[in-house]
Amino acid sequence: MEQEDSCIIRLFSNYCALSEEDKRLLHRLEESPIETRAGQVLWEECDKASEFCTISKGWAYSFRNMDDGSRQILELFMPGDIVGMREFAFSQRLTGLAMIDDGVICHFPHHRLMDVFRTSTTLTAVLFAIVSRHQALLTERLVNLARRSAQQRLAHFIYEIYERLNQTGAPSDGHFRLPLSQEQIGDALGLSSVHVSRTFTSFRKQHLVLRERHRMHLPNPQALAELADFDSRYLNDSLKPIFCDNGKQERQNGSSNVTTE
Amino acid sequence: MEQEDSCIIRLFSNYCALSEEDKRLLHRLEESPIETRAGQVLWEECDKASEFCTISKGWAYSFRNMDDGSRQILELFMPGDIVGMREFAFSQRLTGLAMIDDGVICHFPHHRLMDVFRTSTTLTAVLFAIVSRHQALLTERLVNLARRSAQQRLAHFIYEIYERLNQTGAPSDGHFRLPLSQEQIGDALGLSSVHVSRTFTSFRKQHLVLRERHRMHLPNPQALAELADFDSRYLNDSLKPIFCDNGKQERQNGSSNVTTE
DNA sequence: ACTGCCAAACAACCCATGTTATTCCTACAG
DNA sequence: CTGTAGGAATAACATGGGTTGTTTGGCAGT
């Protein structure tokens, strides 16, 4: 029970009770933290990929630069997220990674994951669950981009962030910080920044979203979710620790009574 | 060296040399094959999710029905693919699954995967690599939908299938079968079937794609790839068995000399 | 206080794609 | 041989969102 502040450990504990041994393994993924500055690019597409990293502090996003000069933002990462799984099977990065805020990140090499596989079935399963959930997020984003109008896309984007923040325990009565420019939001939603602005204006008139600089306020989150056709199953249903019941054979240290959810 | 015809074993062997024990484990994922008919829906959104399945024969696709009546096709599965990973952490299906062709599929429960985690680090790593590659496919599809014109989307879609088929060893001098209707293609690309038709017509005039019923012919695959801004790294770079060098501690059976690729 | 910079708002115009409807073709059942 | 149904091609029209350019307002550095 060393530094219980680790967000990775908190994240993993959501899925499953962890033994002390497991926690020690997880701590090894957070060695050598590095301070980063807002806007800093941690890696670019095509860079050599032999590491993951965990985000301890700050937000980040992954992106692809298109040859027509535009850019697609693929995922938003928040503290506790593990970044770079996509390239586990690859030798090059497929997407860039950049910091939004100042923050702190920790690198660890791919082979460190092999240690985890070898040592803890529980952690392996949780990792799988995390990747699975991550894929669910991506899928939802894909549907969002392919099938919905600009209003719905933006509503969905905002509401997803709102939900994710709520899940990590922030109180938030509809208020939160969204440290993205309209251009970045457009890059995430496949829209021009002009149209993002238009859409925000429209939301303001409808009293759905009030935005001032980076402060967001949702007077009526429910209505926003409906507009976006938001189905939160892909966010909320994911904390079922079914699989841990099967993996309890390796419980070597007694104190695994952290109730999950 | 039982039935060496198993497509799962072939798939896994692409990533890493497998011990006999590993192969035996994999075979257990292909027990109880079930014959399926073209068009058959194997599961719907919201169904209970406690199984994966592997596709032994035929093509399948996953989809989401939107409340406006439209439908988004998310992924195409071909023989050897494992389906349903997305819901490992969930209790419900997030997407439906339907067969395109007649085919054969095999179900196995989530907890069978725990056996794999417990028993074979190699297979665990390969599974991770497969999921990672799968995520790369999804990411690319996302970029495709968000940022490209209808022509580019269709070109990308066709060329991706062409490449995937080539990788599984079909000879294919630009000819292949694509058993999808224009409406299904539209559902996959976020386009109306009418516009898919328009775009095919345009491709025909440009001598880029000749389509007759379900037979496709690409007179100039290179040109198509360029139009689509196709970067094949996300398909081809994925067979680097780096991680196996670290996992060789469990090699209990001598005959692991299946050369990878 | 002055200057310069950048995010954001707004307007005018344009084009890619959606929508609807009609016709044609082929497969298939009787 | 005929009737029917689904896939595909094509045309006419509608519209959401992109593009470009201008204006505004806040903030940082001097």
Question: Could you walk me through the main structural features you see in this protein, from its secondary elements to its overall organization?
Answer:
Two copies of one chain form a homodimer. Chain A has 261 residues and is an alpha+beta fold. Chain A has two domains: 1-141, Sandwich (Jelly Rolls); 149-228, Arc Repressor Mutant, subunit A (Orthogonal Bundle), CATH 1.10.10. Chain A is 39% helix and 19% strand. A four-stranded antiparallel sheet of chain A has the order 1-8-3-6. Chain A has a four-stranded antiparallel sheet with strand order 2-7-4-5. In chain A, α5 (150-167) crosses α8 (221-227). The radius of gyration of chain A is 19 Å and the shape is globular. The model of chain A is unreliable at 245-261 (pLDDT under 50). The interface between A and B is large, with 60 and 60 residues. The structure holds a DNA duplex (30 and 30 nucleotides).
Q: Return the structural class of chain A.
A: alpha+beta
Number of individual domains of chain A: 2
Using the coordinates above, name the CATH class of the largest domain in chain A: Mainly Beta
Strand fraction of chain A: 15-25%
Order of helices and strands of chain A: HHEEEEEEEEHHHEHHEEHH
Query: Looking at CATH, which topology of the largest domain in chain A would you report?
Result: Jelly Rolls
- How many E strands of chain A? 11
Q: What is the CATH architecture annotation of the largest domain in chain A?
A: Sandwich
Count of alpha and pi helical runs of chain A: 9
Radius of gyration from the alpha-carbon trace of chain A, in angstroms: 19 Å
Biggest interface, CB < 8 A: A-B, 60 and 60 residues
Low-confidence stretches of chain A: 245-261
Strand order, biggest sheet of chain A? 1-8-3-6
What is the mean predicted local confidence, pLDDT of chain A?
86
